[in-house]
């Protein structure tokens, strides 16, 4: 039962991250991190990431820049 609830939560978060309208700051930060990881860890181009997230490539570039800046904080970098 807990796995089903977690699965529904993950699906809901994924839907929020793909939503085209602005959402809460925590969702925006999660989306930025997901974009960054898709670009850096998976090796997708920023254009490919933008298409997958239904965003403009400049939005992905901005997200990557924000995450790179936050990685200067050791605790955040350790989490990434």
Describe the structure.
This protein is mainly α and 80 residues long. The protein has one domain (25-80). It is built from 5 helices and no strands. The protein has helices spanning 2-18, 25-40, 46-53, 57-70, 74-79. The termini are far apart.
In summary, what is this structure?
The chain contains five helices and no strands. With 80 residues, it is mostly helical.
Number of strands: 0
Beta strand % = under 5%
| Sheet with the most strands, sense and barrel status | none
Shape: globular
Number of helical regions: 5
Number of separate structural domains: 1
Compile the SSE list and pairings.
Layout: H1 2-18, H2 25-40, H3 46-53, H4 57-70, H5 74-79
Helix pairs in contact: 1-2, 2-4, 3-4
List key phrases describing it.
globular, mainly alpha, 0% strand, 80 residues, 5 helices
């Amino acid at each position: 039962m807990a796995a089903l609830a977690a699965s529904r939560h993950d699906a809901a978060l994924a839907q929020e991250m793909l939503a085209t309208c602005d959402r809460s700051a925590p969702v925006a930060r999660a989306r930025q991190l997901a974009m960054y990881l898709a670009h850096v860890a998976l090796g997708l181009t920023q254009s490919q990431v933008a298409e997958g997230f239904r965003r403009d490539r400049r939005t992905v570039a901005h997200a990557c820049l924000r995450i790179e800046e936050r990685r200067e904080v050791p605790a955040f970098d350790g989490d990434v």
